[in-house]
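User: For my dataset I need records formatted as: sequence, then structure tokens, nothing else. Please produce one.
Assistant:
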Amino acid sequence: RVAAPAVRSARRAVRSAATIRGAPDATLSASNSITSDDVSSWEEIDSQVAVMCATFAGDSSVNGRIFAVTELGPDKTYEALDDITVVDVYQAAYDGGLEECTTIIDVHLRIVAECIIKENVELVNAVYDKFRRMPPMLQKSSLVATAAVAEAGLLYVKEEYDLIEAILRDDVKGPEASDEMKLEYEKVTVIAEWIDKVIAAIHAEKGEVNGELVTDAVQIHVETIDAPMITPPDGVM
């Protein structure tokens, strides 16, 4: 049977104006950055899960995906914001408070959740299409900055599930593995798998070739915890 997941807790991310480092005149707005309204809300995602439960009633093969989606939520966003590396990446890319960081990470976690439901990463392409409508220089700077923060946040969240997967990997194959353990293992592997897929789609949007970014836009580097660095485009001092 399809298991009924617990209801997620609700916390809303807030947003205020920030600017991209290297483009101080470009105050972020709904027209030149990814916003919360660009994807489904957590409440709307819960409704999609309810439809999924009804559609696959009696089919336990979807339980891992259902529990993976409901595992994600605003709480994971705020956990990522507590990580100093995530904050350093954001501060290397943006001037301003952490509201923009909150939005970027929360939006991308919602993207992961919807991609799990739909079993494809087409939503990444649809959301990142916004960058293609920006002026060329702002397009590149905004895309690279957004992708850097999103990847840092997603990798922080994924780290937890990679650890759980490693702990359960051997036991889940044994004869004493409970159904609960098997479901937990399936859930964490689904989350890790789809975070990797979303990050890969972001890399493609960013224009990476063989792991190298092919762009003349601002690039984000964080060499140490205390020393985030910005590499300007070629020819700019």
